[in-house]
Amino acid sequence: MPYLSNRKSYEDATELMAAFGDNAGYEAAARADRSLDQGNHIHFCHWRQIERLIVLLTYDQPLGTIH
Questions:
Q1: Radius of gyration of the chain measured on its C-alpha atoms
Q2: Stated pTM of the model
Q3: Which entry of 32, 34, 42, 47 is 20 to 30 Å from 3 by CA?
Q4: Would you say which domain of life the source belongs to (predicted)?
């Protein structure tokens, strides 16, 4: 499960999903790569987390342990 440090992570993921649809994960990956190229490791980690969150949000079945 991805670590979400704040609500902004969720908002960024849903914003990308609304704007890019099925390609939202690719956009998040591109933003992560761009941040890494610029030497910004904080934003790189943020966008990689968003990429993972988008994958999880696209599943329509429960993931992980259900209590």
A1: 12
A2: 0.84
A3: 34
A4: Bacteria
- In sequence order, what DSSP letters do the residues of 12-28 get, joined into one string? HHHHHHHHHGGGHHHHH
Each residue of 37-61: b (16+ CB within 10 Å) or e?
eeeeeeebebbbbbbbbbeeeeeee
Instruction: List Cβ neighbours of 31 (8 Å cut-off, separation of 6 or more).
Output: 43, 47, 50
Q: 17-67: per-residue pLDDT in tens?
A: 999 999 999 999 999 999 999 999 999 999 999 999 999 888 888 777 777
In a domain, 1, yes or no: no
The confidence band for 2, taking pLDDT boundaries of 50, 70 and 90, is low
In a domain, 65, yes or no: no
